[in-house]
UniProtKB/TrEMBL annotation:
Residues 128-151, 212-226 are annotated as: Disordered. In the presence of PdxS, forms a dodecamer of heterodimers. Only shows activity in the heterodimer. InterPro entries: Class_I_gatase-like, PdxT/SNO. This is Pyridoxal 5'-phosphate synthase subunit PdxT. GO terms for cellular component: cytosol; glutaminase complex. L-glutamine binds at G53, E54, S55, R112, I156, R157. Belongs to the glutaminase PdxT/SNO family.
């Protein structure tokens, strides 16, 4: 069984847990989801999601609870992290806000609340690079083809990514601004992939991410034995 963690100091935690379970189930994987509110749990997790919410609050709690360095270690060990909306802001290397202590896990700078007041919240059909079908196989022929149908992306007071450096791959743009990126084992989205039934972003972050791995002797191997 895979051990998944959802950072649960604030934000839409249950929706992420459900999306992780859907993405795992559709690939024949078992997963146990842990809510992370204190230190000591992240080191046991094979994969992590950091939800939206309020980035200044999330950042402060991660620091106060001593969770921030554990998330850095997780990524350094090559284990996957999906950071969404406020989670992306916290994972970035520059949020241009003194109240946010960036984790520096993605070489991007972000602009908070970038899409303007009228568009506080909107849904957009996004072309996202590298998505694989809901069942792990877009056309059902078992070869894991890409599924190029647009992803229904829900933006809520979303950040935009305005500078991308290092080895960051831009997976999707909206209004000419990057809104989904990948760097090694980390996938970041400005939108909320957990708020739609489509679990392809979670699948991409956790199961189709060739840069990410579970630890040696980890839970994937024990699963294969049973
Ligand atoms: N506007 C929030 C922030 O800057 C992010 C919004 C969200 O996560 N839905 O932290």
């Amino acid at each position: 069984t895979l051990e998944a963690g959802v950072v649960a100091v604030q934000g839409d935690v249950e929706e992420h847990a459900a999306a992780i379970e859907r993405a795992a189930r559709s690939r024949g994987r078992e997963v146990t989801v842990h809510e992370i509110r204190e230190s000591g749990i992240v080191p046991d997790c094979d994969l992590l999601a950091m939800p939206g919410g309020e980035s200044t609050t999330i950042s402060r709690l991660l620091r106060e609870e001593g969770i921030a360095p554990e998330i850095r270690d997780h990524v350094e060990a090559g284990k996957p992290l999906l950071a969404t909306c406020a989670g992306l802001i916290v994972a970035s290397s520059d949020a241009r806000d003194d109240r946010v202590d960036e984790l520096g896990l993605l070489d991007v700078s972000v602009e908070r609340n970038a899409f303007g007041r009228q568009k506080d919240s909107f849904e957009a059909p996004l072309e996202v690079t590298g998505l694989v079908g809901e069942n792990g196989d877009g056309d059902g022929d078992g070869d894991g083809d890409e599924d190029e149908s647009p992803f229904p992306a829900v933006f809520i007071r979303a950040p935009a990514i305005d500078d991308v450096t290092g080895d960051v791959d831009v997976l999707a743009t909206w209004e000419d601004r990057p809104v989904a990126v990948k760097q090694g084992p980390v996938v970041g989205t400005a939108f909320h992939p957990e708020l739609t039934p489509d679990s392809r972003i979670h699948g991409l972050a956790f199961f189709e991410n060739e840069a990410a791995s579970v630890p040696e002797g980890g839970t994937l191997e024990s699963e294969a034995e049973s």
